[in-house]
Give the backbone structure.
Amino acid sequence: MAELTELADDRALLGRTSTAERVSDILRTRIAEGFFPPGTRLSEDSIGGALGVSRNTLREAFRLLTHERLLVHELNRGVFVRVLSVEDVEDIYRTRALVECAVVRGLGDPPYAVEGLAAAVAEGRRAAGESDWKGVSTANIHFHRELVALAGSARTDEVMRSVFAELRLAFHVVDDPRRLHEPYLARNLQILQTLQEGARDTAEHLLTAYLTDSLKGLVEVYARRVADGGQGVG
């Protein structure tokens, strides 16, 4: 399989200290990129062979990713990339609203270090110019990751890394990524500009509305797509 040949290229990332954590990092990234879509069964033999790791190491990596809610183990069937329910998506957005809005609310006095946000906005606009809607989705995640990073908390970054990775599982099921992501290019820019102006309260208000609208739009298309048995799901 071409996918496994490509995965084998990641073997170099393991270096001399091949650990379950490093394997889980690779698989987490690949899942976030849509390399293994939701509903995909992960073969221990194929993936272990591609990465050149032992069965025990791979099983430990699977266990870590199951704990992060990216994988699910089904008795007598194996390990699968998780398919989110609508309730899962709603819970992800509750978490996002709690954390992201609190980060903006807790910002001190301006100016704010928004260089990362600006880079993510530029990344999204470049991807849109190339009609790369998957790239726009990635840039959007980068924008929110940089927003969370404004808190200066490694623990918060770690928590939200898993939340954003889980969110990508829903994005990969959607059949019209342009419709889902394009409207938020302008809204990302608006939040960036508001923070550049030092208007923290206005930025929080914009973000609250943003997340509410994003959840509504995603649930609408996601519920229909899962009900229809979307590609990669099952």
Notes: The chain has a mean pLDDT of 91. The first strand starts at residue 41 and ends at 42. Residues 200-227 form the longest helix (28 residues).
